[in-house]
Design brief:
By secondary structure, the protein is α+β, with helices and mostly antiparallel strands. Helices cover 37% and strands 19% of the residues. It has five domains: 53 residues, Helix hairpin bin (Helix Hairpins); 213 residues, D-amino Acid Aminotransferase, Chain A, domain 1, CATH 3.30.470; 107 residues, Nucleic acid-binding proteins (OB fold (Dihydrolipoamide Acetyltransferase, E2P)), CATH 2.40.50.140; 146 residues, Orthogonal Bundle (DNA polymerase, domain 1); 67 residues, Rossmann fold (3-Layer(aba) Sandwich), CATH 3.40.50.10190. The structure holds 2-(butylsulfanyl)adenosine.
Length: 673
């Protein structure tokens, strides 16, 4: 193949892949299977490898992130990126509207009302219908060039369709982490003993600031456009026209905005949004109200910090008062000590809250939180409960200040602090609390899925000295178990059977179960797909590890440290003699290739709502039965498996005529008869 032919072929593949990306991520209506997509993708990848000079930074292959960077280049914004004036009060909103009336000299000022997305503001510049740069706001004049990280956002168009103008133009939008992704990331971080993100905005900012774009790619960020910067060619007259422009040019934009012709309609739109926002896939902390006429916008201009033509009306987060009964120290799997508030149970934003993390000592000191205090709590970003402040007037006397313990509450070993003196951890490798949490993780559903071996039983086993390590679990027998409290012979037999069948779990589950820091379920699967067995993984050089998608430097080093440790080598040898799949590819095959055989062959599933077990369990079972699982409902979806409180996916399925299956029906399909 000549270079000219390669260039043509690369352009064709790029166009195709971009189109399928859009069909999948934006329109939720894929036309080809994942496997066909992968084939196109691999053809492009191999052509780019043969002709490296022809590889464009906007190639679809760059969405997975390239090599780490050393820092972010500053970029000057063509038009200043301003922030918005904020208000929580309807009165101030009315005053804002009155000001518009006066300045524009008319009774009714049409405005657009749209959700205020809780993410990170970005500017995206396009030229010749190609993405050329994405930057953060920074101080408004100068931001950081985050183009490489932003390219990993699947819905961010890298190439524009012929309908788009060819000249240079700049759009403004918000990069955010969808609510569901936020919950997953925090669950994984909790499992790995890493500090939780307070809200989706922090998680987004953290993900965009990663020097390694592969880490950003793994976070599955999203973007929504809502405005323009410097864009002389766009020839728009009204803010609402932007919506049409975005849609024509395939820019993701909010699907719900209101055009309100007067003050009453504005207030009504805001009220509607306040109800609707709970069902949006992202966190909204308010409404943004913008004058609709762009001529009026420029006539109104801006103050030194914010435009006069827009305002953000913030919704009050739901708060509740309750009493702080105690501060308990939790010892995590990695030994991290975290103070946790035990609260008198109270209902906030629809669910009962009895515990809240207090993060660390500094946080407790800053808020001056003491045991016995009456505290105000709210759900940070509407998701995680947090203690906002103490109601000082209600404090009785002068209760002692809280201090982190000098020794681990579980084993008495003096604690250590990290370099910044914020994190406190127990250095004892044999700490029973760490062991308990490790065993609990090992037995959890996503890991070895040992039915019946939950927190309580793990605690009992460790306290009774029956489990001093993971291998000890496989040495349990009926005679030792029968001495435990609440352990009948039937329960003991069930546990032993569950332990026995866990030996034949797919190998990646064992990798995840080992609790290697930074190795979540997805990476474990990828690692085994690549290396085939734990023995191969254990011998993999760190550069080979780091070259895998979603792995990177930090993870590869963590994997090496784990397998280089003599204690872990001994652990693996022991597990192997106990019949676990360490050296081999496993006694049971991994999930079947989707497709031709199995009860669910040739079906594509989407899972939604609350089911009796975590979604991963159902994903696993569908894959094992030969089906496929997709993230969003489209015309390619065969079934929607819907649990309780199913939301927008259910509506979408209904509108597309996709069959909705409940859990009992699913069980019947998987195990006929
Ligand atoms: S318009 C000139 N629209 O809120 C100001 N901003 O508090 C243009 N934001 O910096 C901003 N959703 O990061 C606008 N629909 C929306 C928004 C939105 C979220 C963010 C944006 C802005 C911040 C101001």
């Amino acid at each position: 193949m000549t270079e000219a032919q390669a260039l043509d072929e690369i352009a064709r593949l790029t166009r195709e892949l971009e189109r399928h990306n859009r069909l999948y991520y934006v329109e939720a209506a894929p036309e080809i299977t994942d496997r066909e997509y992968d084939e196109l993708y691999r053809s492009l990848e191999s052509l780019e490898a043969r002709f490296p000079t022809l590889k464009s930074p906007n190639s679809p292959t760059q969405r997975v992130g390239g090599e780490p960077a050393t820092g972010f280049r500053p970029v000057e914004h063509p038009v200043r990126m301003m922030s918005l004036d904020n208000t929580y009060s309807e009165q101030e909103l009315v005053e804002f509207y009155d000001r518009l009336r006066k300045l524009l000299g008319c009774r009714d000022v049409p405005v657009v009302v749209e959700p205020k997305i809780d993410g990170v503001a970005v500017s995206a510049v396009y030229e010749n219908r190609e993405l050329v740069r994405v930057a953060t706001r920074g101080d408004g004049q100068t931001g950081d060039d985050i183009t490489r990280n932003a390219r990993t956002i699947r819905r961010l168009p890298l190439h524009l369709p012929p309908e788009a103008p060819t000249g240079r133009f700049e759009l403004r939008g918000e990069v955010f982490l969808p609510t569901a992704g936020f919950a997953t990331i925090n669950r994984e971080r909790e499992e790995e003993g890493e500090p939780l993100f307070m809200n989706p905005r922090n998680a987004t900012a953290g993900s965009l600031k990663q020097l390694d774009p592969r880490v950003t790619a793994s976070r599955r960020l999203d973007v929504i456009f809502y405005g323009v910067g410097l864009a002389p060619d766009l020839l728009l007259e009204e803010q609402v026209d932007l919506q049409g422009f975005f849609q024509r040019c395939h820019f993701p934009c909010g699907d719900k905005i209101w055009l309100a012709n007067n003050l009453e309609e504005t207030l009504a739109a805001i009220r509607e949004l306040d109800v609707l926002r709970h069902s949006l896939p992202y966190v909204t902390d308010g409404a943004v109200i913008k004058v609709n006429s762009l001529t009026a916008q420029s006539a109104l201009g801006s103050t030194s910090k914010a435009p006069r033509w827009a305002i953000a009306y913030k919704f009050e987060p739901e708060q509740a008062e309750t009493r702080l009964l105690n501060i308990e120290i939790q010892v995590g799997r990695t030994g991290a000590l975290t103070p946790v508030a035990h609260l008198e149970p109270v209902v906030v934003s629809g669910s009962t809250v009895a515990r809240a993390t207090l993060h660390n000592q500094e946080e407790i000191e800053r808020k001056d939180i003491r045991i016995g205090d009456t505290v105000v709590i709210e759900k940070a970003g509407e998701i995680i409960p947090a203690v906002v402040r103490v109601v000082r007037e209600k404090r009785a006397g002068d209760p002692p200040k809280f201090a982190m313990p000098a020794a681990c509450p579980a084993c008495g070993t003096p604690v250590r602090r990290d370099a910044e003196l914020v994190k406190v951890f127990c250095p004892n490798e044999h700490c029973p609390a760490k062991l308990k949490r490790r065993l609990q993780h090992f037995a959890s559903r996503t890991a070895m899925d040992i039915e019946g071996l939950g927190e309580q039983l793990v605690d009992q086993l460790v306290d009774a000295g029956l489990a001093r390590s993971i291998p000890d679990l496989y040495r349990l027998d009926a005679s030792s178990l029968c001495h435990l409290d609440r352990m009948g012979s039937k329960k003991a037999a069930n546990l032993l059977r569950a332990l026995d069948s866990s030996r034949s779990r797919p190998v990646w589950k064992l990798v995840f179960a080992l609790g290697i820091p930074h190795v979540g379920a997805t990476s474990a699967r990828e690692l085994i797909r690549h290396f085939g067995s734990i023995a191969n993984l254990a011998n993999a050089p760190s550069d080979e590890l780091a070259s895998l998608p979603d792995v990177g430097k930090v993870v590869s080093e963590s994997i090496r440290t784990f397998f280089d440790s003599p204690a872990n080598q001994a652990l693996l040898a022991e597990l192997e003699t106990l019949g676990l799949p360490v050296a081999t590819g496993g006694t049971a095959p991994g999930p079947a290739e989707p497709g031709s055989s199995g009860a669910l062959a040739n079906t594509t599933w989407v899972i939604t709502g609350t089911l009796s077990q975590p979604r991963e369990v159902f994903t696993e079972r569908i894959l094992a039965a030969g089906g496929k699982v997709a993230g969003s409902v489209s015309s390619a979806t065969t079934y929607l498996l819907a649990g309780e409180k199913a939301g927008s996916k259910l509506t979408k399925a209904a509108s597309l005529g996709v069959r909705v299956i409940d859990e009992p029906t699913f069980e019947g399909m998987i195990n006929p008869g």
